[in-house]
Amino acid sequence: MERKRSSSPKMGSTNHGSSGIEYDVFLSFRGPDTRANFTDFLYHTLLAKCINVFIDKQGINVGEEISPEIFQAINNSKICIPIFSRDYASSSWCLRELEHIMQRRKTKELEVMPIFYDVEPSDVKLETRVYADALTLHQEKHGAEIVQRWAEALQEVTVIKGWDTKNRGHGELAHLIARKVLLKLKVSCVDISDHLVGMDESVNEVVNLLNVESEDVRLIGLWGMGGIGKTTLAKVVYSKLSCNFDSCSFISDIRETSQGSGTLDLLTL
């Protein structure tokens, strides 16, 4: 069964598993509840911020077991965002995912950021019948031992501070979550060498000049002979500050691009 992932997963070495694909975020959700609305909005918002996301685009057919690929994706992710909807607990697949997610969290190999979509934390904590009744039905099929592990995972996740969607638009919430993820991951859309040295003083100087907390508009110019690191400095500053904004872009090679079809092309980058 094919599963669609983020359009640009990171390939390379990872300590999490053997697939060689590393994800920033794993989305855990019940498809019929949120796939076509909030989850889809959050997924594309994260992608727009250059965050690599694993999302199961196909779902599971009746009678199928959860794919080992799902567990591998969780193992290879840095952050998991479970989206607790009204019928999340009715899915044994979702509960298996959550159990594995919380096991990974105990070893400090995965950070969990829960979203309470149309339920209260008390529902997830099994203090009401919303999720408790679903677990009772699962017990008849899967047995008391497995369901008890699922119950523990649900209760454990409510200890983590999360978001709710009440009195807040999906767009606003998705951007808040994306910004939080960026802060945790320090993700940037620009390529920067991992072996830069001696940049801190210059970076801090430019950051102080920009003073993004101020309400005025500032234009900073970097000038000097070619090859001394102006573009690299600009990239590092951009990477450091971009997570503070809902929208931003980095345009390199402006002279070459503008000499092609003119400045109109720059506006579409």
Note down, in words, how this protein is organized.
With 269 residues, this protein is of the alpha/beta class. It has two domains: 10-183, Rossmann fold; 189-267, no CATH class. 45% of the residues lie in helices and 10% in strands. The chain is built from twelve helices and seven strands. Strands 1, 2, 3, 4, 5, 6 and 7 form a seven-stranded mixed beta sheet that branches. Strand 4 (77-84), helix 4 and strand 5 (111-112) form a beta-alpha-beta unit. Helix 3 (68-75) runs parallel beside helix 4 (92-106). The longest helix has 16 residues, at 170-185. The chain is elongated, with a radius of gyration of 22 Å. It starts with 9 loop residues before the first strand and ends with a helix. Residues 1-8, 11-19 and 264-269 have low confidence and may be disordered.
List the helices and strands and how they pair.
Layout: E1 10-11, E2 21-28, H1 31-34, H2 38-48, E3 53-54, H3 68-75, E4 77-84, H4 92-106, E5 111-112, E6 115-116, H5 121-124, H6 129-142, H7 144-157, E7 163-164, H8 170-185, H9 200-210, H10 230-241, H11 254-261, H12 264-267
Parallel strand pairs: 2-3, 2-4, 4-5, 4-6, 6-7
Antiparallel strand pairs: 1-2
Helix pairs in contact: 2-8, 3-4, 4-7, 6-7, 9-10
The helix-strand sequence is EEHHEHEHEEHHHEHHHHH
Based on CA atoms alone, the radius of gyration comes out at 22 Å
- General shape: elongated
What structural category characterises the helix and strand content?
A: alpha/beta
- Secondary structure tally, helices: 12
* CATH T-level topology of the largest domain: Rossmann fold
Classify the helix fraction into a percent range: 40-55%
Mean pLDDT: 82
Please identify, by name, the CATH architecture of the largest domain.
Answer: 3-Layer(aba) Sandwich
CATH level 4 superfamily of the largest domain: Toll/interleukin-1 receptor homology (TIR) domain
Major beta sheet, specifics?
A: 7 strands, mixed
Q: Ranges with pLDDT <50 over ≥5 residues?
A: 1-8, 11-19, 264-269
What count of structural domains? 2
Distance between the termini: 36 Å
